[in-house]
Amino acid sequence: MKSLVVKSAGSIDWPGIGQSAIKVLLVGLVFGAGLPALYAVGLRLWDAGTGGVAKDGTVTKANPLALAGAALAFVLIVAAVVCGLLLVMKKTIAHYTGWTVFPGLG
Amino acid sequence: MSADLVILTLVVITALGFDFTNGFHDTGNAMATSIATGALKPKVAVLVSAILNLVGAFLSVEVAATITKDVLKIQSATGALTAGLTGADAMTIIFAGLIGGILWNLFTWLLGLPSSSSHALFGGLIGAGLAALGTGGVNWNGIVGKVLVPAVLSPFIAGLIAAIGTFVVYAVSKRVRPRRREQGFRWGQVGTASLVSLAHGTGDAQKTMGVIALALIAHGSLTADSVKNDGLPVWIILTCALAIALGTYLGGWRIIRTLGKGLVEIESPQGMAAEASSAAIILTSSHLGMALSTTHVATGSILGSGVGKPGATVRWGVAGRMVLAWLTTLPAAGVVGAACYAVAHLIGGLPGALTIFAILVALASWMYLRSRAQKVDHTNVNHAWDEQTHSPTPADRVSEPVA
């Protein structure tokens, strides 16, 4: 079993792995939990904004401000998703069109 | 047709076969929650997922031509074969590794267990590499750092994100009228599941493309430089995209059932939170320096959505069986890969390659026939989970014993 150790080239980059894991967790929290939360906020505003008979039986008027808030939430979500897809496709886009989508990211 | 070319053809066919199993093994990662909650009809779900996998396969030109370098030492940094390794040996290693991957994928599918297709492929390659080159041919640090550690971390990361997402989503949407809430979250589910499908096509089809490219490089009909400069030949991209999409459309119903019904009884807000967590991680993790397996992430997310919903029950026993399958994937696929390499090497040349191909076809057919005896398909995928046996086959489909 000695050869296992001797023949391994280089060593495992533990700090690098740790950093990557934390980055994945943080980015995941922002997009993977943050966006669903925003979507739920949008749904709630939309529900409040359209008025009618609420869950507890009270009748409410339509609220344009809440509806606008809902629209904003949904637009933000779509924008975030589009950015995410462009990020994944950035090399393909650069390859076929020469457009650098995120200049800072290489 | 020379013997080399016949072997190359068999390897390419086997690689596409692996891609196909990769497709149906992973349909559930994207679509199980949408099918379970009724957000999408089963047949519609697999069709949508298949189309998005097809599109996804064309989305990224980043070629995984150095696919084996994390686990083996048979490629240099550019993707060319390392010095001292003959093309024929490299081709046999790839061939045997692919067979190990396919057979393990089929076996876990038969048991309805979502295990990682990447791990199955890596396991097969490691086994074949060990048999061919000994321990010196294996990149142990790469296996630990790039395969094992991410595999251990991913379900926890995905689970935590999905649990927080689920908790917040329920808290925020508590007062929304039930019908509107259900409708809203079903749309959210369809959107997030679509993203997971797209990400899957982008990431997983690349692996097979890389394996086929490596086989062509080993054969001498493609050079690592030409891949670097001009990308892959279009036929490789096209066939890999089609194979993974066809596999996805076939739908691994047994695995969809375990993921959608077995782990947690899923409601649409949970489904959306789970798929959002999966989509976010799968799309970004490789850019952040840690490529995570779709399967481990998706399973972690679904478990997390059960943990995050107050009052939900998670069937930890079913999760435990999955973890067992994950732990055994690398060694089991490795044993098959090593055995296939040994057989091919002992017989040698074209007869050796034909023999292991015949073994693959025979065992794959056997498992397919076994699956037909206790069929899970789009008609019974959502039937109640059997709390006694935890079998992926619904109780009402188990054939009656003959008197």
TrEMBL record, chain A:
Keywords: Membrane, Transmembrane, Transmembrane helix. The keyword Transmembrane helix applies. The chain crosses the membrane at residues 21-46, 66-88. This is Uncharacterized protein. It comes from Metallococcus carri. The lineage of its organism: Bacteria, Bacillati, Actinomycetota, Actinomycetes, Micrococcales.
UniProtKB/TrEMBL annotation, chain B:
The chain crosses the membrane at residues 44-67, 79-107, 119-140, 147-172, 232-251, 323-344, 350-369. Pfam families: PHO4. GO terms for cellular component: membrane. Keywords: Membrane, Phosphate transport, Transmembrane, Transmembrane helix, Transport. Residues 383-403 are annotated as: Disordered. One of its GO terms (molecular function) is phosphate transmembrane transporter activity. It comes from the Bacteria. It is found in: Membrane. The keyword Transmembrane applies. It is a multi-pass membrane protein. Its main location: membrane. Belongs to the inorganic phosphate transporter (PiT) (TC 2.A.20) family. This is Phosphate transporter. It comes from Metallococcus carri.
